[in-house]
Amino acid sequence: MEVTSTLLVAIMFTVILSIGIGNLLMGISSLVDRRSGTRAYWVHATWLVLLLLVYCNIFWDSIGIFSVEDWGFLSFLYVIAGPILLLFATNVLVPEAS
């Protein structure tokens, strides 16, 4: 199997999205857990659900990565910037487990 730059970009894209989705689901599970002592506020819960939908939408649209044949470093950074910003947003919205 030939490893192309498109495949490497797709793998990096998916790994960053997976880390963000994992962090988001762990945060949602700690909010649902009544023993954690964290109270769920409806605005915060709405933002978490919206963020999960954005993750799903970006993952669903990631098939467009395979249509690009020539990758440069700036185009790679442009594509990876979305999942990185989502990961930052997830870390801001999800409370840390104590």
Helix content: 55-70%
How far apart are the first and last residues' alpha carbons, in Å?
Answer: 45 Å
Strand-pairing-aware structural class:
mainly alpha
Low-confidence stretches: none
Overall pLDDT metric? 87
The run of helices and strands is HHH
What do you see in this structure?
The chain is elongated. The chain has 98 residues and is mainly alpha-helical. 11% of the residues are buried. 69% of the residues lie in helices and 0% in strands.
Label this structure with key terms:
98 residues; mainly alpha; single chain; 3 helices; elongated
Outline the secondary-structure elements.
Elements: H1 5-32, H2 42-60, H3 73-93
Helix pairs in contact: 1-2, 1-3, 2-3
Quick structural gist:
By secondary structure, the protein is mostly helical. The chain has helices spanning 5-32, 42-60, 73-93.
